[in-house]
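Allow me, if you will, to draw on your knowledge of protein folds for a short while. I have a record of one protein: its chain in single-letter code and its fold written as discrete structure tokens. I remain grateful for any guidance, and I place the record below:
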Amino acid sequence: DYVFVVDASGSMADSGKLLLSKDAVAAFLNELGDVDRFEVMTFNVSPNLAFGQLQPATAANRQRASDYLAKQEARGGTVLQPAMATAYKYASNDRPLNVVILSDGMTEQTERQILLQQIKNRPGNTRVFCIGVGNDVNRPLLEQLAEDSGGLSAFISPSDNFGRQARAFRQKLMRPFATNLE
């Protein structure tokens, strides 16, 4: 299961970061398999859901998600915590949940400790992956959120091949190098 959490705050208007995020999510969606389920969420100060529940990765649902993203505009402030809490509601005991955040990480400095605590208290079987979008990103925050949850962080810019990156990212999710190390 995948929840794509796309930052649609005002800072994402800079250098076309929201457009980059939309293109990256489209590439990720195209790599999903028949047994995968997904949700797409945008956020600025509050989360907005494309579906309200996990959807099978059919061509029709991928198109609905693309149509939803096409309507999104960058505006407002950035508060990631409510979006993370909403993404965690999709966790279940029988399937792993992969929360994929696409953001520049330009959130309020006071939110950092709250986010780190939220990662620590995430539901079992949940990993968070952070995709830093653009050249002006809060790299330390995004890397720490991903690392603390057992996920990965990556950073994209306009010159990247999103399809290739999405395939590589999915391969890392499906065939991790090592898991549950003690």
Notes: The two ends are 25 Å apart (CA to CA). The CA atoms of residues 99 and 128 lie 5 Å apart. The mean pLDDT is 89.
